[in-house]
Design a protein that fits this description.
The chain is of the alpha/beta class. The protein has three helices and eight strands; from the N terminus they run βαβββαβαβββ. The strands form two sheets. It has a four-stranded mixed β-sheet, covered by helices on one side. Strands 5-8-7-6 form a four-stranded mixed β-sheet, with helices on one face. Strand 7 and strand 8 form a beta hairpin. It is globular, with a radius of gyration of 15 Å. The relative contact order is 0.21.
């Protein structure tokens, strides 16, 4: 069984390229229609699809988005890296924005929070970079 994390975005192709460059993931698939894209991310595939879908909006409802800059989605994406400094630098060089400086958290270790504040992503999504531990 394959697991997928689905991210709704304004522009699938640009989102796939951004995540691939900013976080170092390999593009598995980008559909010709640019309505579906996938990145390899360990055991779980990260998939992208448009936020507005006339095929499913009437059946399952529309995707809700935050109403202000003070709201965020209930789901966040977290990537683990051995070299969190290099991962952070690459993400910022590709358009991510720092939310918090490096912070040590008891339950996960060193983390950095960044926003993927690209206009082609429907809403700024919080991404957490974590330093891999020996655990």
């Amino acid at each position: 069984m394959e697991e997928k994390l689905l991210v709704y975005v304004k522009d699938v192709a640009k989102s796939v390229v951004f995540y691939a460059k900013a976080f170092g993931h390999k593009v598995r698939r980008l559909d010709e229609s640019h309505r579906w894209g996938e990145l390899e991310s360990g055991e779980t595939t990260i998939a992208f699809t448009p936020i507005q879908q006339h095929e499913t909006d009437d059946l399952t409802g529309e995707v809700l988005t935050p109403h202000s800059g003070r709201e965020r989605q209930p789901v966040e994406i977290c990537f683990d890296y051995v070299d969190i400094d290099a991962a952070y630098k690459r993400a910022v060089e590709n358009g991510a924005v720092l939310v918090s400086e490096a912070e040590e958290k008891v339950f996960v270790g060193e983390t950095r929070n960044i926003y993927n504040s690209q206009e082609f992503i429907q809403f700024p999504s919080l991404t957490i970079l974590r330093k891999l531990s020996n655990v």
